[in-house]
Design brief:
single chain, alpha/beta, TIM Barrel, nine-stranded parallel β-sheet, 9 strands, globular, binds pyridoxal-5'-phosphate
Length: 225
């Protein structure tokens, strides 16, 4: 298992770097978020030993147990799942970056909880570029306003945008969604720098379209049971 992990990691990193070269980008701009939902703590630990530096978790309780066993500082912990407002106070305690802020209500709660523990919380705004009802995220035409309002919250650091395109067998079909997110980021400008986009099936297309954080689970850890 550990050797598979190291091999998968090396292969994914090569593919990210090659996609950067094709797009004329510096490979140093793209970081890999290893999506460790459902992956047991021992395997996540082996992953850290193999060189993973960022873990992405979808469920607060699962992440809390894993962070307890592995430690808070051996890697960065990112939250990428749907976050309920009533979990905000756990989230600010656990995560270095929350990718999935999709409402001002949630942002305001995170801001309040960060203030309460005397910290600042780094966040991304999740945008539902496709408009699919099953996807989280704020609507594309409301994203700029949400970014603006979050900019007024003193304890949040807004770093960028995140999206999940519809699932396609051909990764090229996800490309227009990635391009739309990049265009939105460019249009809004600072403080937005990060673009969290691309998963196991489509991360190369996402990198070619400007991703700075790719969220890869299956291609790294194998299929989830
Ligand atoms: C599970 C998940 C991923 C990783 O998906 P894979 O296809 O396993 O790489 C990425 N982003 C989010 C938001 C997820 O929930």
């Amino acid at each position: 298992m550990a050797t598979d992990l190291a091999r998968n990691l090396a292969r994914i990193r090569e593919r990210i770097d090659a996609a950067c070269l094709r797009a004329g980008r510096d490979p140093g701009e793209v970081r890999l978020v290893a999506v460790s939902k459902t992956v047991p703590a021992e395997i996540v630990e082996a992953g850290i030993e193999a060189g993973l530096t960022i873990l992405g978790e979808n469920y607060v309780q699962e992440a809390e147990a894993k962070i307890e066993s592995i430690g808070r500082t051996r890697a960065a912990w990112h939250f990428i799942g749907r976050l309920q407002t009533n979990k905000a106070r756990y989230a600010v305690r656990l995560f270095d970056l929350i990718h999935s802020v999709d409402s001002f209500k949630l942002a305001r709660e995170l801001d309040k909880r960060a203030a309460g523990q005397g910290s600042r919380q780094a966040v991304l705004v999740q945008v539902n570029v496709s408009g699919e009802a099953t996807k989280g995220g704020t609507a594309l035409d409301q994203a700029a306003e949400l970014v603006d309002r979050i900019g007024g919250l003193p304890n949040l650091d807004l770093k960028g945008l995140m999206t999940m395109p519809p699932f396609f067998d051909q990764p090229d079909r996800a490309r227009p969604y990635f391009a739309s997110l990049r265009e939105l980021k460019d249009r809004i400008g600072p403080p937005l720098v990060e673009l969290s986009m691309g998963m196991s099936g489509d991360f190369e297309a996402a990198v070619e379209e400007g991703a700075t954080l790719v969220r890869v689970g299956t291609a790294l850890f194998g299929s989830r049971s």
